[in-house]
């Protein structure tokens, strides 16, 4: 048996840096979409990247609905408006003005919208990895979203995830069967710029948490791993 770790040689320093660059410069995009079209070969690469995500039991529970029609986008934008009006009532009084000022979707401006769904019945009868945790199919679908998001960044495309939607209304509008869950509604397109930090941070909604305070050793809230935490703090 091979006891040496696989060499990092097939990812040279530049390739490794490129992976981290995609991770650290990826942004959720709402307001910076440009009207230029997304060529099909690029979209094909992004969807292929999504399709190569890990999935529980290799179930591949996802489907990808490509939405380009302006009328349909407007209908979904209206669902978002409605959902925002409902959501804002649950935001603390002193944050409602800030909430209302935030742009939280680019549905109409983005040339392509994607709905990534999870077919909860795809591997019925063979629940490898899902017997105790049936929600793993949903998590798998989220992995596909993240693959697509990072690949889009590497292609110079922006992507925004829109979750302020009534799921049942979206299902009806997109004619999803009952056993199919819409996991992610995404806006995709070329952008004028990628901000260097999350918009919700720059607009004062929330700050990035300190990573070292989120790490524990051996159990929830277990102390230790001080060297690791110090390294993270000093980075
Ligand atoms: C599951 C999920 C749902 C999200 N829903 C929305 C949304 O409805 N509207 C929005 O503007 N951003 C949405 N976002 C984007 C987050 O606000 C964003 O990821 C976060 O502020 C960090 O910014 P960044 O992605 O640019 O690093 C969502 C992100 C995730 C992962």
Description:
By secondary structure, this protein is an alpha+beta fold. It has two domains: 26-204, 3-Layer(aba) Sandwich (NADH Oxidase), CATH 3.40.109.10; 207-235, no CATH class. 38% of the residues lie in helices and 13% in strands. The protein is built from eight helices and four strands, in the order ααβααβαβαβαα. A four-stranded antiparallel sheet has the order 1-2-4-3, with helices on both faces. The structure holds flavin mononucleotide.
Shape label:
globular
- Kindly, what is the distance between the CA atoms of the first and last residues, rounded to a whole number of angstroms? 37 Å
Secondary-structure element order, N to C:
HHEHHEHEHEHH
Helix coverage percent of residues? 25-40%
Low-confidence stretches: none
Averaged pLDDT: 96
Number of strands: 4
Name the beta content range.
5-15%
The fold-level CATH name of the largest domain is NADH Oxidase
Task: Work out the radius of gyration.
Answer: 20 Å
- Number of domains in the coordinates? 2
Ligands, deduplicated: flavin mononucleotide
Please list the strands of the largest sheet in the order they lie side by side. 1-2-4-3
Report the biggest beta sheet as strand number plus sense, adding barrel if it closes.
Answer: 4 strands, antiparallel
Structural class by SSE content? alpha+beta
CATH top level label of the largest domain: Alpha Beta
